[in-house]
């Protein structure tokens, strides 16, 4: 496999890419990132991913670089990923390299822009049908979880807690509310109603979350964006996670207790199928 990455204006083999130890992404986590899916060589919702990055840049006062769509496309081509069933592009933008001091460098320095592409193996249907488990973990993040920063230590610890418990996902809990996963959003089904946390500063506003909300509305599934108390999880009939690398993935147990009857439910299945059909429509990718 070719492994050509982009760093500050140049494409090069990954092994040749170098950044300074004084990069603010390294020293402070002063950086934003995006992960964008590609199906059969076509990006899904690249514009929305770039818009989220643009909003993050505006909030953190990091200049938003031009030409990112072309950069994404070029990475695909240089890595021969146009025919791949699925791939992802990772992009990271830090405030740049400067002697360590907390406030922004003055005068400003050029941001560091790093990006790479790699194939991604979609989940097979057999594993999907079995469903997955999640464990609740306290949410230890700062107050701007809506910004996609590389300050991911709380998410690293949460995902490791899930792995230590032998489960696929973490369910982050703050003030008694179940918010999202370590790298994905979460949806609950109460009776006929689909519920997910509002896009506040407490969660990352997932692009897949937004796409699934649109699909649910198209499908005539009643939807409410409101918080869910952990105590109410016993009344939930279905749970699923969404994300770029998660797509729509069922959760059949939380903290070892079955969700509903412990099987993948009909709303999850409908939205999973609707999501895959939308991917096929948007990207011309084969339905799996
Ligand atoms: N994670 N919530 C969090 C905390 C995330 O980090 C992500 C994405 C999501 C889902 O967002 P989207 O649907 O736009 O992928 C929700 C990426 C994929 C990652 O960290 O690898």
Helix content: 25-40%
Q: Which residue ranges are poorly predicted, with pLDDT under 50 across at least 5 consecutive positions?
A: none
Distance between the termini: 24 Å
Question: What would the principal axes of the Cα set say about the shape?
Answer: globular
Structural class: alpha+beta
CATH top level of the largest domain is Alpha Beta
Overall pLDDT score: 97
How many structural domains can be distinguished in the coordinates? 2
In short:
The protein is an alpha+beta fold. The protein contains seven helices and 16 strands.
What does this molecule look like?
By secondary structure, this protein is α+β, with helices and mostly antiparallel strands. It contains seven helices and 16 strands. Strands 7, 8, 9, 10, 11, 12, 13, 14, 15 and 16 form a ten-stranded mixed β-sheet that branches. A six-stranded antiparallel β-sheet has the order 2-1-6-5-3-4. The protein is globular, with a radius of gyration of 19 Å. N-(5'-phosphopyridoxyl)-D-alanine binds at residues 35, 180, 183-185, 204, 206-209, 242-245. The site of N-(5'-phosphopyridoxyl)-D-alanine (PDD) has 14 residues, from helix 6 and strand 14.
């Amino acid at each position: 496999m070719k492994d050509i990455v982009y760093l500050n204006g140049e494409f090069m083999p990954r092994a040749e890419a170098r950044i300074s130890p004084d990069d603010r992404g390294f020293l402070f986590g002063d950086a934003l990132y995006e992960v964008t899916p590609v199906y059969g060589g076509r990006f899904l919702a690249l514009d929305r991913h770039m818009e989220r990055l643009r909003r993050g840049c505006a909030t953190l006062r990091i200049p938003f670089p031009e030409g990112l769509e072309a950069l994404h496309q070029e990475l695909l081509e240089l890595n021969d990923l146009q025919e791949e069933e699925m791939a992802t592009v990772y992009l990271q933008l830090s405030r740049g390299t400067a002697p360590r001091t907390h406030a922004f460098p003055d005068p400003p320095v050029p941001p560091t822009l790093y990006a790479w592409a790699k194939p991604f193996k979609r989940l097979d249907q057999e594993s999907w049908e079995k469903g997955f488990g999640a464990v609740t973990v306290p949410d230890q993040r700062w107050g701007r979880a809506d910004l996609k920063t590389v300050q991911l230590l709380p998410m690293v610890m949460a995902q490791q807690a899930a792995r230590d418990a032998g489960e696929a996902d973490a369910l982050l809990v703050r003030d008694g509310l179940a918010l999202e996963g370590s790298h994905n959003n979460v949806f609950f089904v109460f009776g006929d109603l689909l519920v997910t946390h509002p896009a506040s500063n407490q969660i990352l506003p997932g692009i897949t979350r937004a796409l699934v909300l649109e699909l649910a509305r198209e499908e005539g599934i009643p939807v409410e964006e409101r918080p869910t108390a952990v105590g109410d999880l016993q009344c939930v009939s279905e749970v699923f996670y969404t994300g770029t690398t998660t797509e729509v993935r069922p959760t059949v147990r939380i903290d070892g207790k079955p969700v509903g009857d412990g099987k993948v439910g009909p709303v999850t299945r409908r939205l999973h199928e609707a999501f895959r059909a939308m991917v096929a429509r948007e990207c011309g990718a084969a339905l799996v």
